[in-house]
Write a sequence for this structure.
């Protein structure tokens, strides 16, 4: 037995006041939990003298020192032949106070809640989640193709057991309708025409002052995911590896890590904020490292959206996103950083390899053009995609170099994309 966010262990009732604080901290975080008396926080069972007065004292101390009132179940239990006391409690009326102070559970510790955090807790208690509000959209705005594809993938993942019949029936089963009307979660998930967007860009340097390329994507959450992933794949570097005559293209950043970062960004986004890519703040009291082990519970900003993405297996398991990104990058020896910002949360991937001389996309234009010319000399029918893989830059970067080389009359294209070939000017 180990202490956790939902479980507190106390050696004896001499720690009753501390237990009261733990109960309140757990209630404010999870609205339910357990406390054992007679077990050390290491999990060693030492036992506890249990009498009628023991149970009464625990009950009275909880009643006198916790507001609003709770009514826990208190029972004598036996572990390893030793008597202990088990307290099971629950309550929905957050915030709770112990001895006049509010606390919050972080891992297996109880921390005082600041006045600012307390205000947020009270506001959260008194409002409906944004995604549960009624949307201005209606059923005719739902992209049935996207919804049908979702149902097929969720069936393949064996996470739902019903087939697509019509949009209303499916959305109702998913809990995305209220009195026959779309919730805002359904709008984000399945309506193409909504106010959400993703901005994607390639910069010339780390100062982010000069754009090499910038795009803006709109659509439902599944479209945003697909467009964003395609854009990143196009603009990262790839290299080719030949083993036993089998050519394998390897990205500088693991695609599964990129996908996980994108899904988590869209899943936990602050959709009340309509400005750009706002991922929302990282959960208070937590550090990204807390999730590397995969044992920390997920803190869901948008439970309806998260549950829907889980059903289609776009999310593998709640609370595992950061761990999966971390593990994928560690396996491929790619540096990844998770940064908590005042304005949100940032995942930064290191560039593992670049173009010629290990340069990043956007750098080393002259060297890249020389390499392109050399490749054309070797194989006049070579494609831009093949050049990109060999050089280790994006296909888009190669195409820009080819356009420049054609404009400067270093090369020309003979024939179309299929069946055509390149020629270096002055040669045949």
């Amino acid at each position: 037995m180990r202490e956790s966010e939902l479980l507190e262990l106390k050696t004896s009732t001499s720690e009753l006041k501390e237990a009261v604080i733990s109960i309140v901290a757990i209630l404010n975080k999870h609205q339910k939990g357990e406390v054992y008396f007679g077990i050390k926080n290491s999990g060693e069972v030492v036992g506890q003298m249990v009498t009628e007065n023991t149970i009464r004292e625990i009950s009275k101390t909880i009643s006198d020192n916790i507001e609003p009132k709770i009514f826990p179940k208190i029972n004598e239990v036996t572990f390893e032949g030793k008597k202990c006391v088990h307290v099971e409690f629950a309550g929905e009326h957050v915030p709770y106070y112990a001895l006049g102070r509010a606390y919050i559970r972080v891992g297996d510790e109880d921390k005082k809640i600041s006045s600012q955090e307390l205000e947020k807790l009270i506001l959260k208690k008194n409002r409906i989640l944004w995604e549960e509000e009624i949307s201005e959209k209606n059923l005719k705005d739902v992209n049935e193709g996207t919804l049908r594809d979702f149902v097929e993938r969720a069936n393949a993942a064996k996470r739902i057991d019903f087939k697509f019949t019509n949009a209303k029936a499916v959305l109702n089963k998913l809990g995305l309708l209220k009195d026959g009307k779309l919730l805002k979660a359904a709008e984000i998930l399945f309506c193409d025409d909504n106010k959400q967007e993703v901005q994607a860009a390639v910069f010339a340097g780390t100062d982010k002052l000069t754009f090499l390329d910038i795009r803006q994507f709109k659509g439902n959450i599944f479209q945003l995911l697909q467009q964003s992933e395609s854009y990143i794949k196009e603009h990262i570097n790839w290299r080719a590896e030949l083993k036993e005559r089998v050519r394998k293209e390897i990205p500088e950043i693991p695609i599964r890590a990129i996908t996980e970062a994108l899904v988590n960004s869209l899943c936990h986004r602050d959709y009340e904020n309509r400005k750009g890519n706002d991922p929302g703040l990282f959960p208070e009291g937590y550090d990204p490292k807390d999730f590397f082990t995969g044992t920390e519970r997920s803190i869901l900003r948008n439970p309806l959206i998260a549950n829907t993405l889980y059903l289609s297996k776009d999310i593998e398991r709640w609370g595992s996103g950061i761990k999966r990104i971390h593990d994928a990058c560690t396996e491929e020896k790619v540096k990844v950083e998770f940064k908590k910002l005042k304005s949100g949360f940032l995942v930064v991937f290191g560039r593992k390899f670049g173009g010629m001389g290990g340069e990043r996309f956007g750098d080393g234009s002259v060297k890249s053009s020389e390499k392109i010319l050399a490749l054309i000399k070797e194989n006049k029918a070579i494609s831009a995609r093949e050049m990109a893989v060999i050089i280790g830059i994006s296909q888009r970067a190669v195409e820009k170099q080819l356009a420049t080389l054609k404009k400067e009359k270093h090369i020309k294209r003979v024939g179309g994309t299929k069946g055509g070939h390149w020629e270096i000017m002055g040669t045949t």
About this structure: Residues 132 and 176 are 8 Å apart (CA to CA). The chain has 13 helices and 18 strands. The chain has three domains: 7-125, 129-353, 356-424.
